[in-house]
Amino acid sequence: MEFSAPCLLGLEGLLANELKFAGLENVRAENGRVLFSGDYSAMARANLCSRLAQRVYILLAEFQATDFDALFEGVKAIAWSEYLAEDDSFPVKGGSLDSTLTSIPACQKIIKKAVVEKLRQTYHTDWFAESGGVHQIQFRIFKNRVSIMLDTTGAALNKRGYRELSGDAPIRETLAAAMAELARVRADHIVIDPFCGSGTILIEAAQKALNIMPGMNRTFAFEAWQQVDPSILAAEKERARASERHDCKFHAYGYDIDDDALEIARRNAELAGVGDWITFERRDIRDYHEEFERASVITNPPYGERMLELKDARELYHTAGKVFVKKPYHSYTIISPDDQFEKCFGRPADKRRKLYNGTLRCNVFMYYK
User: Fold this and answer.
1) Of 11, 86, 163, 203, which is the most exposed, with the fewest CB atoms less than 10 Å away?
2) How does pLDDT run across 267-302, given as a tens digit for each residue?
3) What angle do CA 348, 353, 356 make, to 5 degrees?
4) Domains (range + CATH), the chain
5) Is residue 90 packed enough to be buried (19+ CB in 10 Å), middle (13-18) or exposed (0-12)?
6) Cα Rg for the chain, rounded, in angstroms?
7) pTM for the whole structure
């Protein structure tokens, strides 16, 4: 089977490396997604282990379609009975961009009709109750190229199961994990977030350091599928648990001026299974200091257009630039949408990486020299 794992723009290369490291085959990055091949075990592993993917789709077919007849025939040509039992539910949703077929409701109707017609030929019935497991059909039409997929994930993969509560403007878990990857967090790291909020960056860094798979405490859509033996996911979870590193020297420190946010962060860390590896304290950025021989600061300062007036945000950047001093074996990984960040911070970054926080274009500024 072919699979498609969409991701935030800018993460394709990181996601491809992650999936290769997980042992998945035929991995190749494209714009906004990474493709790979495998069986249901590979599907379960990708869902369970990926820190950067948004979802995992089975990629059923790709074809050109400039009219509804072509769309119908392309969908009907898929061997649907290999994926759908007679009583399975198969809702349809998707989108179209820069294509002749622009009506989403009309496309949904045509795709549904084509699937029903193909299943009628197999199951010899005119009525499908759709009372079984949900197989969400997803379509994407871009420049008249149609992709037909099945969503194996359900709730997006950034829903790890540990963030019951969050503070203002929380960073998405997948983006926090990407920052931990860019900062090269390892099992012996000291990681600090002086604007920790609800703790997402530190939790993602800790889970990476301890090699705790992000999907261990959640469920997936494919668990309700008759076609997938429950032992497949059980085996992948057992494999994942065996690779965890609970005796590592990693520790993280989270600081914030909001006591409520700190309490949420502590709760989230406990739910994520990393509470013993993170210390949270009330501290102002102006009082920032640390005495560690080696440390990595990874942080998401408040954004001017979302939480503070731009002037106040830039003052925070300026303060951070003064307290985040150059030291051997210390690095700073900071995300911001402000194109004046480096000027406010007081020095140019050693490296920059363009990423998107939802639709908000950001830069990750990395200081390590």
Assistant:
1) 86
2) 999 999 999 999 999 999 999 988 899 999 999 998
3) 125
4) 2-151 (3.30.2130.30), 173-213+250-367 (3.40.50.150)
5) buried
6) 23
7) 0.93
